[in-house]
Automatic annotation (TrEMBL), chain A:
This is Uncharacterized protein. Residues 11-25 have a biased composition (Basic and acidic residues). Residues 1-46 are annotated as: Disordered.
TrEMBL record, chain B:
Keywords: Amino-acid transport, Cell inner membrane, Cell membrane, Membrane, Transmembrane, Transmembrane helix, Transport. It comes from Streptomyces guryensis. It is found in: Cell membrane. This is Branched-chain amino acid ABC transporter permease. The lineage of its organism: Bacteria, Bacillati, Actinomycetota, Actinomycetes, Kitasatosporales. The chain crosses the membrane at residues 12-35, 42-58, 64-85, 97-118, 138-167, 196-217, 237-259, 279-296. Pfam families: BPD_transp_2.
From TrEMBL, chain C:
Belongs to the leucine-binding protein family. The keyword Signal applies. InterPro entries: Leu-bd, Peripla_BP_I. SUPFAM superfamilies: Periplasmic binding protein-like I. This is Branched-chain amino acid ABC transporter substrate-binding protein.
C-alpha cells in the first residue's frame, strides 16, 4: 500500500470508515465541520488501555498468522507416482479378419490382435461376443495374460446357437471383455467398425436366413453395413424431418 | 382417442396458467388502454420472489404446507410492488403521451427486469430449482394429475371467482368498471382513478405471482427469461378472449392451452399432416387459431367492441 | 496521542498490505510473470449462461485449468497464456459473432469450443477464413468433420476444425445396441429438439435401433426452451413404448423425465452426452432414477490422469460440470498450447503463426487427461471411447464402456 488513497472531501461525514483510516498518516487532517458521529480515532481513545492492548495484540497475532500462512511454502505435494492405469486404457483390440473357411454354416473364426501398450500386464479373463444367441470361444482360451509392449494373436470362434431375437444386421458389433491388471477388474467393450460388422453380419445371415425366412435379401458382402443409413438419412440430417412412423422407412 | 380426457386435463392446467397471467394484461388494458409488455417479467419476478421466501426467509426443511402460503405472499408482494412501481414511475408520467411511448417503455422495462434478475439474483444465470410438493400423482379415472398441477386447478378458479365477485359486487370493483368505461366521467363522479389504476396493476401482479408459483411447482424450475414466452402466450390468450374482458382472459387462456395440447397430440395423426404436428408445432397452431379467431371476431371470443370492458 | 495510535494502526495495515503484495509478486515470479513475456490468448466459446450453461461452464473451467497448468509449468517459454471466454448462449448467431471477435484479436492463437454442434456450423467458416484453429471438446455431429455426405463420401469441410469428442455415428449406434441388446427394449419413442445435435443423434439412434430389430412406437419434436411436455407425456404413455430416447440437451430432458414419471409413464429416458450432466439429476430428482445417457470418453474415475485434473478444478473453485467435457476441454486446450509451443519460440510470434498452429495441431500426439489425444485426417479424435451411464441412487454410474477401433 503506497499510501496514495482517494482524496477525502472535506466535510464528508463518513470519510473515516475503517477502510480509509489507513490513509496517509502525515497528511493534514481535513477540517471537519459539524461532525456528529465520533470518528474511529475518537472511539479508539475512549476504549480502556486494556481493551486497546488486547485489540492491538489480536490484530498483530492475526497479521502474523496471515503472513505465516501466505509466506509458508505451499504444501509440496510429492510428485504423484503415475498410478497404475486401468486395464481398459492400456489395452487395444484390433480386428484382423476372418480366419479359415468356416467349418459349418453357423460357426466362424475371427482373428484379433490384443496388445497392451503400457503399464502392468493385463489378463484377459473373458471374451464374449455380445448378442444373446451366439456362443463364443477363443484360442488361446481365456484367461491369458498380455505383457506391456507385446501383441497376442487370438482367434474368436463365434457359433450361432439360436436365431430368434438375434439381430442379423449389426452396425457396431463389439466384444465384451473382462480385463484385469494389478489395479482393477474391468468389464469393457471393444467396438469394431465396417469390416468386423460386415463379416459378423455375414455369419449371422448364413446361419439364420435358412431357419428364418427373412423378407429382405441377403446382405451382400460388398455392401457396407452403413449403406442403410446412407439411403435413408437425407443429406442434411438436421433440417429434414423423417415422418414419425420411422419403422416403415427403415424396414 | 382414449387419451382425450388426459389431454383435455393437460390443456386445462396449461390454460389456467395462461389465463392467470392474461388477467394482468387485460385489466390494465381495460382501464388505461396500455399493453403492459413488462407483465411477463412481473410474472417472472413473482416466481423469484416466492423462491426467495423459500430459500432465504423460511428455515430449511419447512413443510410445503406452511411454505406455500408464505411463498404466495412473498411472490405476490414482489410482483405487486414491481407492478405498482412500474405504474407509478414508468407509466403514470407518460399517461398523456402518445400511445407508443408507454408501449416502448413497457418493452424497455421488461428487458431491464429480465437483466436485473439475470445479473443480480444468485445463480439466476441458469435454471433455478423450485421446491416441489411431495405427494405423488393422483389418478382420476384415466386421468393422472401431477402434484404440481393440483395447485393450479385449485388456485386458478379460486382467483377467478374472487376477482369476479370483487369486480361485480364491491364498491372498488364497480369503480373499476366505471373507470374502464369512461375515465373522465368516472373522475367527475368522484372516483379516484389513480387509485383504481394502481389496484388494477396490483391485482394483475398478484395473479401473475400465483401463476408463477404454479409454474414453478409444475415444471420444477424457474428461469430469468421464462416471462418472455409465458407473457407472449398470455397476451395471446388475452387477445383471443377479447382484451379488456376478464372472463375473456380466462377463457382465452383455456382455449389456448387446449389448442396447444390438441395440436401436440392429434395433428400428426391426421393423414398427410405428420410433418406439421407434435410438440414443436404447438405454438404455431396456437397462433393459427388466434389469427382465425381475429379474422372472424376481431374483438375476441367474448369481447365486446366498446362498452363494459373491465 | 491521537496521532500516534493512528500511525500505529496505519503502519500495521501498511505492513500487512506490503507483505501480501510481496507474497503476490513472488508467486508471479514463480509463474514466470515477469515483464517481457508475450501474452497469448486461448479463446473459449460455450454457453456460459442460460441453456446448457452447466456443461458450458465445464468447458471454460477445463480450459482454465489447462492454461493455469501451462503458465505454472512454463510450458511455452516466453509466453503467458490467458483465457478469453465468450458466451454464445447456445445460439448459433452469437457463436458466429464470438468467432469474429476472437478472429479479430491478434493475440488469440487458438479456440476451444463450442459446446453445441448447431453453433459450430456457424463458426467453422469464420475460423477457417482466418486460419485460426478450433477444437471442440463436445461437438458430436458427424458432418462437422466429415462433410454433409459423410455416410457415403467423407470430405473434410474445414481444415481448421478439430474435435476431441467422438461422433454421433458411434454414439447413436452404441446407445441403440445397448438399448436393444442389454436393456432388451423393443419399442422406443423418439423425441428430439430439432437442433443439429439433437435431431442428428435421434436419427442415428433410430437407425441403429430399427436395424437391430427394434420398433419405433412414435416420434415427436420439442422446442428448446419448452417447459410443458404434458401432452407429449400422454402421447408417450399411450404409445406403450418401453423406452424414450431423447436427442437434445439436459435443459429439456430433465423436465421431460420429471413430467414423464409424474405422469405415470414408468419408462426410462435415454439420451446422449448433452443429457449427461449432474444438473439433470439435481433437477429431475428421484424421477431421474434409472435414466440413461451415453457420453463421449471413459468415466473420469477410471482415468488416473483425470483425478489430478478434478482436484485442480475443484481447488480453483471453478463452476460447472467438469464431468461431461471438462477433461476433453483440458486436452483440447493443451493440444493448442503444445502446438503454440512448437511455433512460438522465445515469445516471438511468426507472422503465419495461426496457419502453422493448425498444422501442428493436426500432428499432435500426447496422453491427455481423458486419454490419448491425436486427430485423424478429418480432424476427428482417434480416441473413440463411449460410456453408457445410468442414474443409480442419484448419481450417474457407468454401466458400460467401450472403445471403437476403426
Amino acid at each position: 500500500m503506497s499510501g496514495i488513497g482517494p482524496v477525502e472531501p472535506a466535510g464528508h461525514v463518513e470519510a473515516h470508515t475503517e477502510d480509509d483510516s489507513d490513509a496517509r498518516p502525515d497528511a493534514p487532517q481535513p477540517d471537519v465541520i459539524g461532525t456528529d458521529s465520533p470518528r474511529l480515532t475518537d472511539r479508539w481513545h475512549t476504549l480502556t488501555p486494556r481493551t486497546r492492548t488486547t485489540v492491538l495484540a489480536t490484530a498483530a497475532a492475526t497479521l502474523a498468522a496471515a503472513v505465516w500462512l501466505l509466506a509458508a511454502p505451499p504444501p509440496t505435494t510429492p510428485p504423484k507416482e503415475p498410478s497404475t492405469p486401468w486395464p481398459s486404457t492400456t489395452t487395444a483390440f484390433h480386428y484382423k479378419g476372418v480366419a479359415d473357411p468356416p467349418a459349418t454354416a453357423s460357426t466362424r473364426d475371427f482373428r484379433f490382435d490384443v496388445s497392451v501398450h503400457d503399464g502392468p500386464p493385463v489378463t484377459v479373463w473373458d471374451i464374449n461376443a455380445a448378442p444373446a444367441g451366439v456362443h463364443t470361444s477363443t484360442t488361446p482360451p481365456t484367461a491369458f495374460t498380455v505383457r506391456a509392449g507385446t501383441t497376442h494373436h487370438i482367434t474368436v470362434r463365434i457359433t450361432v446357437t439360436h436365431c430368434s431375437g438375434l439381430p442379423l444386421n449389426v452396425n457396431l458389433p463389439f466384444l465384451d471383455v473382462t480385463l484385469r491388471n494389478t489395479h482393477a477388474i474391468q468389464h469393457y467393450s471393444f467396438i469394431f467398425g465396417d469390416r468386423y460388422s460386415r463379416d459378423l453380419s455375414e455369419l449371422l445371415h448364413t446361419a439364420c436366413d435358412a431357419t428364418r425366412a427373412l423378407p429382405s435379401p441377403h446382405v451382400q458382402p460388398e455392401v457396407r453395413v452403413l449403406t442403410m443409413w446412407t439411403r435413408r438419412v437425407p443429406a442434411k440430417p438436421a433440417e429434414s424431418d423423417l415422418p414419425p412412423s420411422s419403422p416403415s422407412t427403415t424396414s | 382417442m382414449h387419451t382425450l380426457p388426459q389431454q383435455l386435463a393437460n390443456g386445462l392446467f396449461l390454460g389456467s396458467m395462461y389465463g392467470l397471467i392474461a388477467i394482468g394484461y387485460t385489466m390494465v388494458y381495460g382501464i388505461v388502454q396500455l399493453i403492459n409488455f413488462a407483465h411477463g417479467e412481473i410474472f417472472m419476478t413473482g416466481g423469484f420472489g416466492a423462491l426467495t421466501v423459500y430459500l432465504y426467509v423460511l428455515p430449511d426443511g419447512t413443510s410445503m404446507w406452511i411454505a406455500l402460503p408464505a411463498m404466495l405472499i412473498g411472490g405476490g408482494l414482489v410482483s405487486v410492488l414491481i407492478a405498482v412501481g412500474a405504474e407509478r414511475f414508468a407509466y403514470r408520467p407518460l399517461r398523456g403521451a402518445p400511445r407508443l411511448a408507454p408501449l416502448i417503455t413497457a418493452i424497455g422495462l421488461s428487458l431491464a427486469l429480465q437483466q436485473a434478475v439475470f445479473n443480480w439474483y444468485p445463480d439466476a444465470k441458469t435454471d433455478r430449482n423450485f421446491p416441489q410438493l411431495a405427494f405423488g400423482p393422483w389418478h382420476l379415472g384415466s386421468i393422472s394429475i401431477q402434484s404440481g398441477s393440483v395447485f393450479v386447478i385449485i388456485a386458478a378458479p379460486l382467483c377467478m371467482a374472487a376477482l369476479a365477485f370483487f369486480v361485480r359486487l364491491s364498491r372498488t370493483g364497480r369503480a373499476m368498471q366505471a373507470t374502464a368505461q369512461d375515465p373522465d366521467t368516472a373522475q367527475l363522479m368522484g372516483i379516484d382513478t389513480n387509485r383504481i389504476i394502481v389496484i388494477a396493476f396490483a391485482i394483475g401482479g398478484f395473479f401473475a405471482a400465483v401463476a408463477a408459483v404454479a409454474y414453478g411447482l409444475r415444471y420444477g424450475q424457474i428461469k430469468y427469461d421464462m416471462g418472455f414466452q409465458m407473457g407472449l402466450k398470455a397476451f395471446t390468450a388475452a387477445v383471443l378472449g377479447g382484451i379488456g374482458n376478464i372472463y375473456g382472459a380466462m377463457i382465452g387462456g383455456l382455449v389456448l392451452g387446449l389448442a396447444e395440447t390438441m395440436a401436440t397430440s392429434y395433428i400428426d395423426n391426421i393423414p398427410g399432416m405428420q410433418q406439421l404436428g407434435g410438440g414443436g408445432w404447438s405454438s404455431v397452431w396456437a397462433f393459427v387459431l388466434l389469427i382465425l379467431v381475429l379474422l372472424f371476431r376481431p374483438q375476441g371470443l367474448v369481447g365486446e367492441r366498446v362498452a363494459d370492458r373491465a | 496521542m491521537r496521532h500516534r495510535s493512528l500511525v500505529i494502526l496505519t503502519s500495521v495495515l501498511t505492513t500487512g498490505a506490503l507483505t501480501l503484495t510481496a507474497c503476490g509478486s513472488r508467486n508471479d515470479n514463480k509463474g514466470g510473470g515477469s515483464s517481457g513475456k508475450t501474452e497469448v490468448i486461448i479463446g473459449v466459446d460455450a454457453p456460459l449462461t442460460g441453456q446448457n450453461s452447466a456443461t458450458g461452464l465445464g468447458i471454460q473451467g477445463g480450459v482454465q485449468v489447462a492454461v493455469d497448468d501451462a503458465n505454472k509449468n512454463n510450458l511455452v517459454p516466453g509466453v503467458t497464456f490467458k483465457v478469453q471466454a465468450l458466451d454464445d448462449k447456445a445460439i448459433p448467431a452469437s457463436g458466429q459473432q464470438n468467432a469474429t471477435q476472437l478472429v479479430n484479436n491478434d493475440k488469440v492463437l487458438g479456440v476451444v469450443g463450442p459446446l453445441n454442434s448447431g453453433v459450430a456450423t456457424q463458426m467453422q467458416q469464420v475460423f477457417a477464413t482466418a486460419n485460426l484453429v478450433e477444437i471442440s471438446p463436445s461437438n458430436t455431429a458427424p458432418e462437422l468433420t466429415q462433410g454433409k455426405n459423410w455416410q457415403t463420401k467423407k470430405v473434410r469441410p474445414f481444415k481448421t476444425y478439430f474435435r476431441t469428442a467422438t461422433t454421433d455415428a458411434l454414439q447413436g449406434g452404441f446407445a441403440a445396441d445397448y438399448a436393444y441388446n442389454t436393456l432388451k427394449k423393443k419399442n422406443v419413442f423418439v423425441v428430439d429438439d430439432k437442433q443439429t445435435y439433437g435431431a442428428g443423434l435421434a436419427k442415428l439412434f433410430t437407425a441403429g435401433f430399427t436395424k437391430a430389430g427394434g420398433k419405433v412406437a412414435g416420434t415427436d419434436h420439442v422446442n428448446t426452451g419448452d417447459t410443458d411436455f404434458s401432452a407429449l407425456v400422454t402421447k408417450i404413455k399411450n404409445s406403450k413404448a418401453d423406452l424414450v430416447y431423447y436427442g437434445g440437451q439436459y435443459d429439456e430432458s430433465e423436465k421431460l423425465t420429471k413430467q414423464l414419471k409424474d405422469g405415470g409413464a414408468k419408462v426410462p429416458l435415454f439420451g446422449g452426452d448433452g443429457m449427461f450432466s449432474d444438473t439433470y439429476i439435481q433437477t429431475a430428482g428421484k424421477t431421474a432414477e434409472g435414466d440413461l445417457a451415453t457420453s463421449v470418453g471413459q468415466p473420469v474415475d477410471t482415468l488416473a490422469s483425470a483425478q489430478d485434473f478434478i482436484k485442480k478444478y475443484k481447488a480453483a473453485g471453478l463452476k460447472g460440470d467438469y464431468g461431461t467435457y471438462g477433461g476433453y476441454s483440458y486436452d483440447a486446450a493443451t493440444a493448442i498450447i503444445k502446438a503454440i509451443g512448437n511455433v512460438v519460440k522465445d515469445g516471438k510470434i511468426p507472422s503465419d503463426a495461426r496457419a502453422q498452429i493448425v498444422d501442428q495441431v493436426g500432428k499432435t500426439k500426447f496422453d491427455g487427461v481423458a486419454g490419448p489425444v491425436a486427430f485423424d485426417q478429418y480432424g476427428d479424435t482417434t480416441n473413440k471411447q463411449l460410456t453408457v451411464y445410468q442414474v443409480t441412487n442419484g448419481k450417474w454410474k457407468a454401466v458400460k464402456s467401450g472403445t471403437f477401433n476403426g
